[in-house]
Amino acid sequence: MSQGYRHTVGSCTYQFENLAQLMAKATPARSGDRLAGLIAQSAEERAVAQLTLAEVPLTTFLNDALIPYEDDEITRLIIDEHDLKAFAPIAHLTVGDFRNWLLSDHATSEVLATIRQGITPEMAAAVSKIMRNQDLILVAKKCQISSAFRSTIGLPDRLSTRLQPNHPTDDMNGIAASMLDGLLYGSGDAVIGINPATDNVKQATNLLHLMDDVIQQYQIPTQSCVLTHVTNTLECIEAGAPVDLVFQSIGGTQATNDSFGFNLATLAEAQAAALSLNRGTVGTNLMYFETGQGSALSANAHHGVDQQTCEARAYGVARKFNPLLVNTVVGFIGPEYLYDGKEITRAGLEDHFCGKLLGLPMGCDVCYTNHAEADQNDMDNLLSLLGVAGCSFIMGIPGSDDIMLNYQTTSFHDALYLRRVLGLRPAPEFEMWLDKMNIMKNNGQHVLSGNVPGPFARSLHAIGGN
């Protein structure tokens, strides 16, 4: 049973009823937790909660479930699959000790790889709450996570992009034009992924064929994905559609995922079906998950747990399925959950840190909605910080404006900026293809060709001739 916590500062004693309340009060301020009535009432209370949380032993998180074991399949997944052997080297630490150890030279990339299965999402969330932004960046940078399907994502000194050619009416010519635009800017090595405007099996199948035709015709070492519901993807597979990746938005509680219309068994079924197609060339990671702080609260499925901890629990779901890609759509849900640029920046760094610490190939949709107190300069700042932190991939959208989903994110130019300023390169297979197609030379300079590659030019000429 969850115990209470108390901490005295001078003549004032602060009481925290249980671990969930302590975690919530220790969380850096954000509008979602304020909306849920979970936020600390003052900066002093938040600081005291952080001091108190720092003294909590890591073993507490194995014995004091924030959401009861019998009520939630995500809790059961986290507890049942916890690796005690991997946990043993850090089992004696408190949350504060864990922070200090993560920042130390003893916590090398190699050592962090050996303990990741011993870290629960709640432990990752807890330690993030007492870390500065630079701490989150430093530790995330040390976590080296790679995954592969037709391209290899997450290798050191690499930055991949999801080419996101969304269109408000799913017009095939409009989508194809955006795909060409992105490829000519060196985008698309993580995935060519479309959010369909009309979300049904027939339309998903049409879009899958469009992307597969382009990938096969130009021999592009990447993968396609229609970001439709997992059950639609299952039907596409059964109908013989060319499915590369299985997509699903996921949350950190069973009730959240129930509201999304799936459970862990659904994901396992879809993963097995996609694996049976054997479409990967350099790996078999084929799940693609998107998350976002506030999803559990927006579904009234947070169980009184703060939104950042719920988010970390979603990474426990993702880890189960060895995904190719995971990204937090950090500012997409809106200012009710992350109010301004400062809150979005903090959330993006927290999410990236927790995902990497837990062993996920973590990317970020660096984004905001137009009614948030944020602008593109805020996104430039977060993009730059995530690049330093070793983010695996970002989004690439024409002009950074998604005209179908109506939100602001990162453009093809933004990826070029980050690659140039930090010396990052595309996925190795895709980099070789860019060189072969004379789109961008494999010389580390990220200089684009001034001409349309011959194969693309011939296709465009054929269209013009018709």
TrEMBL record:
Adenosylcob(III)alamin binds at residues 196, 248, 298, 404. It catalyses: ethanolamine = acetaldehyde + NH4(+). Its EC number is 4.3.1.7. Substrate binds at residues 162-164, 195, 290, 365. Gene3D superfamilies: Aldolase class I (3.20.20.70), ethanolamine ammonia-lyase heavy chain domain like (2.30.170.30), lyase (1.10.220.70). Its cofactor is adenosylcob(III)alamin. Keywords: Bacterial microcompartment, Cobalamin, Cobalt, Lyase. Binds between the large and small subunits. Catalyzes the deamination of various vicinal amino-alcohols to oxo compounds. Allows this organism to utilize ethanolamine as the sole source of nitrogen and carbon in the presence of vitamin B12. The basic unit is a heterodimer which dimerizes to form tetramers. The heterotetramers trimerize; 6 large subunits form a core ring with 6 small subunits projecting outwards. This is Ethanolamine ammonia-lyase large subunit. The lineage of its organism: Bacteria, Pseudomonadati, Pseudomonadota, Gammaproteobacteria, Alteromonadales.
